[in-house]
Amino acid sequence: MKSTTFEPSPILIKRESCGFSLIEVVLAIGIFLITVLALVGLLGPTLQSVDEVEKTDEVSSVVNTVNAFLQSSPDIAPNGSKFDAIYDAVKGENFATILVFRAYLDSNDPSLIGLKVGFNNEATDTPIGTDAIITDAEIADAAGPIYRVVLSASSVLPTPTDDPEKYRSAERDEDTLVYTLKADLSDYLEGYFAMEVRIFAEAPGPSFTRTTNLGELAGVEPIFEYNTAVVR
Prior knowledge:
Strand order of the largest sheet: 2-1-3-4-5
Shape: elongated
Oligomer: single chain
Number of strands: 5
Structural class: alpha+beta
């Protein structure tokens, strides 16, 4: 007789599915939101710091450009003394203006951008060489902020004991906030000419005017100011 073997059927065990309770979900979302808010709070100061670094780098670049231009550019006085030309330029109106900006070099290729630096020709009898003066066409091609750099007599100019106001006025002008440069070039006997440099950032375009109005600038905070000098 053939025997039959019976195997027990597998026991089906009902297992409860695992999951998160409502309280756990709420707590997780709360922790996530707190973390996100903390990161957002850190993002603001970080972006501000990046912006400040970029502005500092830009100002540093303008300062270096101006100093190199004043000290080394042969275009300022191609046929004479660079010292004399700069002194007379400042003496004319008690100030002189240099413009620094980036400009498009090719109207057909906007990727070609170069640095422009030169005097702003505000006097008809300027002693500055033609090639050292910014043109209207160059201003029209400006590709970013135009930095107006105002040069005037510095407070560190020598004050001779016998005549303290031989070279400059004792006080700044109330309207323009600059010293009056009193000595003509022939009477200026020092080996250097110290200048106060104030830098203002302005937007390019139709609103930009070449004329430097010191009365208006007196109420504007420069983005940077320092002293420099040229030697004979």
